[in-house]
Each structure stands twice: as C-alpha cells, then as structure tokens.
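Posting for a labmate who doesn't have an account.
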Amino acid sequence: MPQGQPEGVKASALEETREKLWQSIICKEIELREAKTKYNATSFLNRLPVEILSKVFLELASAITNDFIDILDPKGRAVSWIYVTHVCSHWREVALDCAALWSDILYLNPSLAEAMLSRSKKAPLSFKLSWYSNPKWESKDVIHKILSHSERLVSVEIGSCANAAILAHFSRAAPILEKLSLCGVYPAVDLTSTFLQAGAPSLKHLALSQFQFESWAVLPLGPRLTYLQIVGSAVQRPSAPQFIASIHAMPHLQTLILEKLLPEGEYPTDPVYNAIYPPPFPALGKLSLTDTVEDVTNFFSAVNLPETAKLFLEFSDPHLFDEESLPGFLTNLGESWKGLKSGVQKLVMREDFTIDVLTFEFYGGDCGEADTHRPGLTMEVGEWSPANVLQVDDFIVAFTAGMNLAPLQTLRISFFESTFFTPDMWVRAFSRFEQLQTMEFENSDSWEFLEALESDPAFKDERSPQAQEAAALAPHFPALTTIKFKVFDFECRIGSSAWDFGFIFLDVLSRRVSCPPITFDVSQCTNFSSAHYQQLKMTGLDITWDCHEDMTAGDDANSDSIDYDEDDSEEEH
C-alpha cells in the first residue's frame, strides 16, 4: 500500500469493481438466455404450430392420468406431465394458454386443483375426487368452487365422500354433463327429488352407490343413458310396470348393474296376447344383478337379452335354491338369453371361503378373441356352506339338465378350501362329459378326483372277477388328456407325497389303455422336487414341471425316493 493512502478508499474501490463485474455477469446471462431462446425458437419442435404442440401435451397428460390407477402410487405421478411443460418458456406459454390441458381436474391437493380450475378458463370440466386422494376432506371450498360450474361439467367422479353438500350442486342444470359417478358417505344421505331435475339432457353414464332415496322415480333415467349402476342404496323397489317403462325409456343401454332393486310384483302383460311385453335391450353388453332367487328368476321371464351380453348374477338368498327353484331359474334364463347357445366349453368353479361365496364361470365357444377371458355367464352363490340344501354336484347336475354342457372341454377348480368333493360327487357331476379333456386344480385338493379315476368300474384289474363285466361299461372321463396342478401341496394329506400321486396315476394309466394318454403339468406347487420330477419321468409318466421347488421343513425328497417297478405297483394296488 502506498504511503498516505487511506485503507477505506481501497476497500470501496474493490467493492465497486465487484459490483461492475456482477452487473456484467447479469447482462451476459440475460444475453445468453435471449440467445438460447432465439436458438430454441428455430428448433423443429418450437416451429410446430401451437395447436399441434397443445395436442401433444393433451395426449401426454391423458396417457399419464389414465395410467394412474393404483391408490398406492405417489400422488404426484398423476400430474407428472406438468414437468414436461417446464422444458422452455415457449412450451410453458403454450401449456398455460391451452385451457383444455387444465380442464381434467384430478383432485390431489387444493392449490393444484384451484390453479387448474383457473387455467381451464371456460373449457368443459372433468373432475375426479376419491376418499383415498383426500382422506381428511381438505379444502372443501375448492371442491365446491369446482362443482359450482355446473354448466361446464362433463364428467364428475366422487368416491366415498359424496355428502349432502356435494349433492346440492346437482340440483342445478347440467346441460353438458355426460358422466356422473357418486359414492356416498356413511351414514347414507338422501338423494332428493331435486337431483338433476333441472336438466341433464346429455347424461350417458350414471353410477350411484350408498345413498337413500324415496323411490325409483327420483332417478334421472333419460333416453341417452348407456350405463346405469345403482348399488348399496336404500330405496323402495320400483313396481314391475314402472321398471319395464324405465327400461323402455333407455333404448341405448349398454351396461346395467342393479343391487336389490328388481321388482317384487307381477310383470305387466299384453292385454291382447296375455303375454309379457319384453323391453328391448339391443345394445346391452353387460348385465349385473344382485337379488333374490325369485326376483332374478322373474326378471328373466320378462326380458329378452341379446346373446352377446355378458351376465353376472349374485344371489342374496342362495339358501332358497332347491331342486325346484334352480331348474326354474335356468329355464327362464335360457328363454331370455341365448349367449351360450353353442354350449359351454369351459367351466371355472371358484370358492372364496373368507366370504362364503362359490362362483361358477361359464365360457361359451362362440365368443370372439376379445372375449376369450370373459365368461359369458358368472353366477355367485353367497352364504356357501356344506350344510346347504344343494351341493356342488347338485348344481352341476341341474346345469347339465338346463344348459348345454355337452361340449365342455376344460374344467378348473380354484381355491376350494371348505368345499368337499367326494369321489362319488366327481363321478355324478362330471364323469360322463365325452369332450372333457383338461382338468385344472388351482390351490385345491385333487385327491378325491384321483380316487374317482382309480375306482372307475370300467377298468377293474384283469385278475378280478368283475373284469369281464367292467369291460362293457363306459369309462369315466373318457376324453381326459391333461391334468394341471397349480399351487398344490402334494403333502396336504398326512402321509401323502408326490410319490403316492405319481404311482397311483401310473396304475390308473396302465388300466386306461383304451383311453387317450394323460399329460400332467405341475407349476408353483409345494413339496414337489427335482428328484420327484426326474424319477417320475423315468417311469414313463408324461409330466412337465416349472422347476419351482418349495419343500416344507423336514421334508427330504431325495431320501424317500423309491425305485419304481411294475410288480411293486400291482402289489400295492
């Protein structure tokens, strides 16, 4: 430092220099941003018309939002498309000016919902709110602000939180509303006579759950409805004439889902022909009914359904199924609906013992490729118990008499936990189906089926006195070619093992020489090892295995393997 120069003067000059440099940096950054903006403006994407870029944003937002189906997914994932609009200022400006981009409001947090409402300007609105996305019922004001735009609402879906205050919004006219799906709170609130009575001429989809309403007449059932679902609601059932008139008023109905709402009285008849005048269902693709055996039976006596419709029937009083009511139901069903006219090719029987339900799924042979995984008819029998009047084989015998089960090729038994199938029941229910080729056991005991095969009187041991008489008998399961075991424990019975299964099957096959050979498929099973597979394969058993090896504690498949010999098998059996 030169002599006599104050120290403060130098510090001040240094700060001034730094300030000038900082201002220079800011200016250069501004110039750089401007240069980048001009550069980006010349890129291909930024030369796209605003309409095209907006369309890209709309497609992206739709794809991401529609993919948001798991309530456990992070909430932000549903609106992650917003990050794409932040790539550059031009994209941001285009996005903010595209009202339609913000008009599909998935309520995840209040501030975002309110921002989307503001940015949507006057565009038609879609709004989705579920209890899972808003369990604490936060910021009611924003929700009511959205619903107050009734003239703009196109689609509204509110799950498990539709209270009286929300219902009040639907007393106003909703001229462009096409879809309304509401699930009420507990205890249920009243659906009043003002509900949509101000006008909803565009309504196509109406789904109501967990409400109370005075009568069927309260419902806004218009000619444009294609989807009607009313479940879990307390309502006085419509009279049969009122119900039939309502169906006549909805000629474009594609989906009808009703729970305990079918008429209980007599259906109206034509005074001239003294016959029920059935309503048209030309477009019906899905029918789901939950009701009493009697009411469902009467319903099918009064309607004609297109054969392409898929039916789901759940009975609230299945204990009333008996040897008289079940055939009567099947008769009316067959006259009303010809969806299985070519016969049943696949039957799935599934038990859910946690809720005491037994399900029958019937697959026809005349469905298109898109319907191969959709049963034509599903029947759920609730309050299922071994103490019921009718057991599984009784149902199958009735189905055989009332439906065309002759083409049956595949039978799947799934999750039979409490339902017991004796060998005699197997024989009575299924042994005479001449085209039954495939048996599938999924998480279900198959020992009784094995015993039914083993005890077939048509295949008595040649040394037995009954052998000559047995030769004249028709064999059980004559077309059987494949048996599949999935999620099955080969030691589900005390003292049993995969060896027992294999040797009994070998014995059965040695006597079924006049029938087709049988292939066995083992997948995801317990207590079946590579040792079992290798040795059973060596015996000549046609078996495939997915190599899934899950041996329970204390089991050693290698230690109990047995060298197979035909004489040993004959002595055992």
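Reply:
Got it, the structure tokens are right above this. Confidence is low (pLDDT under 50) at residues 554-573.
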